[in-house]
Design goal:
The chain is an alpha+beta fold. The chain contains 26 helices and 12 strands. Strand 2 and strand 3 form a beta hairpin. Helix 12 packs parallel to helix 15. The chain is elongated, with a radius of gyration of 42 Å. The protein starts with a helix and ends in a 118-residue tail after the last helix. 36% of the residues are buried. It comes from Sphagnum jensenii. InterPro entries: ARM-like, ARM-type_fold, CIK-Related_Protein, Kinase-like_dom_sf, Prot_kinase_dom. This is Protein kinase domain-containing protein.
């Protein structure tokens, strides 16, 4: 017998073999057991540890405890307490040896303690009690109808609650088989019925009328117990006498008829717990229906899921808050993580998560959100990016750099303009957590392409983002990127808000520019915008010009005083650069379902500047418009065509799209004709007209070819200069702003002719007869590339003396 018990309850090697730590006990427990908190020695996970110490080896109560441990080990149901481990040891108290049983289960706490802790009132209390009773009724129905077992002692003390607020049935010490079909049975059907309190015993059990009990249905005794549980729940007191069950004043009216059927005096007529689950009006409430839907979510079709999740945020506000955060939220997170829930479930998940503390959110919600970033569902990506501000603060630097950003960065090249814009705006939260390698090697390349995006709103907000994340870039990167991005691209954009954003970004980053950069690379661009066609751009240009000019004056004063140190403009603009730049354009909207309200900005938008604590711009929309293709949004009369998407570095086509003139080497910065008079004098006009006269005489270049020598034209040879990498080792592939970097200011005297960038001087004497050559020709020794047209094959070179045709002088 001892061997059998050891096999049932454990090794019998004593408490030292128990792989759990015993903690503080609870104030109450069922049937003489001691209920303690505990943790696992392996992973420190929480458990509950029940212990019972018998007076001696022949203690009848100890035998019942062993029966309870054995039954709990073999009975498995979602609403029955989960067994983990058990063992039996001999504890010595003085000279008395007491055999003790230890039973380890999932972490739970007594129902009475949990009710006091939750302190629910009114409708919310009734809804939670309905859900708990629904679970216990399912457990009792499983024992009675499916297993033909009788629990025998269903009451408030025999119910415990999990951390997710689920109710579990335990206290299986009295549990026995129902032997009503055995006519030869004469003894007690419940071996340990003496453990049941007198106030909880049904009339036939109180009389020990086993014949009547065997003729009754299997659920008769436990249905009575369910009635006792209902009374104790709603009266908020322990049942002391059986007569108290007649008092129904505290029980909800919708439950009273079922309560009376459970406590029927005739055992055969007592309500089956299964019928109580299916037919009781008390169980038809929002909480029960919501949890039941979540538990069978895999069986629902997509239409039912969408309808349910769109209503869930509003419904969750009406349900008991503890139930939502501890029960519904884990169910929702699990459904999203394993794919049974679609994108509409993300919004209620984040809304419920906002009701948690930061630590709880990081442990319960954030792991699921991080996994969702790898989802290929575009709708889920929309939802994550729209709400990233609500959970982005809890993301660690390593998680963002290694797990989040690689997936988010795919949105920069997405075909959906709305997703590109959301991805761009999410960088305001993500960028501060990125490493310098990711910032300079990946993020800046994506931003360089977005600054020539086909959508004006995206181009504008890209400039604003660069201004906001400038403080997170290292000094070398700021020197290389900021001025080029704000002046060469933003200030020359055909979209007025983009130009305004460029000015504000320059002012927000003044601390990173020295006086030389301000004078040679910033002020020339700003001054031109003081006559811009847009009044808001002009206003901002004047403001910025005054600020930067004051910085240069300060530098001049220091030079006169003998201090040659560089003076940034920070001190001058401290009041206008505090805070982050606001998004200038919020224009793009995803395609909505029919009937959804969508607000699309009209073409007549105005950008307002706020120079308070932050430099913020916003587009004011006069009235919502119907959905239109995104390519038609923000049409502007002077808007430049976007750069070709085939550019290798994101900036190679900048000078071909209105940002510079590639035919004039002196005008690569776009401002080559600033110092020319607007109306040329007559003498200069005649010289220009002569220079522009077409050439009618053709001249063949004289070529001298010697073995091993370099061939040059007698007129001119334009040599090809190989590309050179930047001084800091960044090539064009690594530095997306290198292709548009403005050249240093020229120190040579400029020619008066600004119309053409000729390689050979056109100033010739009038009587010389020599033709005026407007452009040098490439001459190569192998004949390759002898013509500018593609596909033209070079003529083979002939050896020996050749006759050279000369034109008549």
């Amino acid at each position: 017998m001892l061997k059998f018990l050891k096999g049932v309850v454990g090794s019998g090697g004593g408490i030292k073999d128990l792989p759990y730590n015993i903690g503080e006990p609870y104030s109450t427990a069922w049937g003489g057991w001691t209920h303690c908190r505990g943790t696992s020695k392996d992973d420190n996970s929480a458990v509950s540890i029940f212990s019972y110490a018998g007076s001696n080896a022949q203690d009848g109560r100890l035998a019942a405890a062993r029966n309870g441990a054995k039954r709990l080990r073999v009975v498995r149901h979602p609403n029955v307490l989960v067994f983990l481990h058990s063992t039996e040891a001999e504890m010595v108290e003085g000279s008395v040896v007491k055999p003790t049983i230890y039973l380890v289960t999932e972490p739970v706490m007594p129902l009475a303690d949990k009710i006091k802790e939750l302190d629910l009132q009114g409708t919310q209390r009734d809804e939670y009690f309905a859900w708990g009773l629904h679970q216990i009724a399912k457990a009792v129905s499983f024992l009675n109808n499916d297993c033909k077992l009788v629990h025998g002692n269903v009451c408030l003390a025999s119910v415990v609650v999990t951390p997710t607020l689920d109710w579990k049935l335990h206290g299986l010490d009295v549990l026995s088989e129902f032997d009503g079909g055995n006519p030869a049975a004469t003894g007690p059907m419940l071996q340990y019925d003496w453990l049941v309190g007198t106030q909880y015993k049904a009339l036939e059990l109180g009389k020990s009328d086993w014949a009547t009990i065997r003729k009754s249905p299997p659920w008769a005794l436990d249905s009575w117990g369910l009635g006792c549980l209902i009374y104790e729940l709603f009266s908020n007191s322990k049942l002391m006498k059986t007569e108290e069950l007649r008092n129904t004043s505290s029980i909800p009216k919708t439950l009273v008829p079922d309560y009376q059927r459970l406590l029927g005096s005739v055992p055969v007529k007592r309500m089956n717990s299964l019928k109580l689950i299916d037919n009781s009006e008390f169980f038809q409430n929002k909480l029960v229906e919501t949890i039941q839907f979540m538990e069978v979510l895999n069986l629902k079709d997509s239409m039912e899921k969408d309808t349910f999740f769109r209503k869930l945020p509003t419904l969750a506000e009406q349900l008991p808050r503890p139930i939502v955060t501890k029960k519904l939220l884990p169910l929702l997170a699990s459904a999203l993580e394993f794919g049974s829930a679609a994108a509409p479930a993300l919004n209620p998940l984040l809304k419920m998560g906002s009701w948690l503390s930061q630590d709880e959110f990081n442990s319960k919600v954030l792991p699921t959100v991080i996994k969702l970033f790898a989802s290929s569902d575009r709708a889920i990506r929309f939802g994550l990016l729209q709400h990233i501000e609500s959970f982005g603060g809890g993301l660690s630097t390593q998680v963002v750099d290694e797990q989040v950003f690689p997936h988010v960065a795919t949105g920069f090249a997405d075909t959906s303009a709305f997703l590109r814009e959301l991805t761009l705006k999410s960088m305001l939260v993500i960028a501060p957590k990125l490493s310098q390698r990711t910032l300079t090697g990946s993020l800046l390349k994506h931003l360089s392409k977005l600054q020539v995006d086909e959508e004006p709103a995206i181009r504008t907000n890209t400039t604003i983002l660069l201004g906001n994340i400038a403080s997170h870039l290292n000094e070398a990167t700021r020197k290389r990127v900021l001025i080029n991005a704000f002046t060469v691209r933003a200030l020359r954009d055909g979209f007025a808000p983009a130009r305004g954003a460029g000015i504000m970004a320059l002012m927000a980053t003044t601390e990173y520019y020295d006086a030389t950069e301000i004078a040679t690379r910033i002020l020339p661009h700003l001054v031109v915008l003081t006559v811009d066609s847009d009044s808001d751009v002009r206003t901002k240009a004047f403001q910025a010009t005054e600020v930067f000019l004051q910085a240069v004056k300060t530098y001049h004063s220091k030079l006169n005083a003998g201090d040659s140190s560089t003076v940034p403009a920070t001190a001058v603009t401290a009041s206008t650069t505090t805070g982050l730049l606001g998004w200038a354009v919020n224009s793009l909207a995803p395609k909505q379902r029919v009937g959804d309200h969508v607000t699309v900005p009209s073409e007549s938008t105005s950008v307002a500047n706020n120079t308070g604590n932050s430099s913020t711009s916003a587009v004011e929309v006069s009235a919502p418009l119907p959905i239109a293709p995104l390519s038609n949004l923000f049409l502007h009369t002077d808007e430049a065509a976007p750069a070709s998407p085939t550019s290798t570095d994101g900036w190679g086509d900048a000078q071909d799209n209105g940002f510079a003139h590639d035919n004039d080497e002196d005008e690569k910065d776009g401002w080559g004709d600033m110092d020319l008079p607007p109306d040329p004098v007559p003498a200069l006009a005649r010289i220009r007209a002569a220079q522009m006269k077409p050439v009618t005489t053709t001249t063949t270049a004289k070529i001298t070819t010697k073995p091993g020598s370099t061939t040059k034209s007698s007129l001119d040879v334009r040599e090809t200069v190989p590309k050179s990498s930047s001084a800091d080792g960044w090539g064009n592939e690594d530095d997306p702003w290198a292709a548009i970097a403005a050249p240093p200011p020229s120190t040579t005297v400029r020619a008066l002719n600004s119309s053409g960038g000729s390689a050979v001087s056109t100033a010739t004497s009038a009587g010389s007869g020599a033709p005026r050559v407007r452009q040098a020709q490439h001459v190569t020794i192998d004949g390759a590339g002898s013509g500018r047209g593609r596909g033209r094959s070079a003529a083979p070179m002939k050896l020996g003396a050749q006759r050279i045709q000369r034109s008549a002088d």
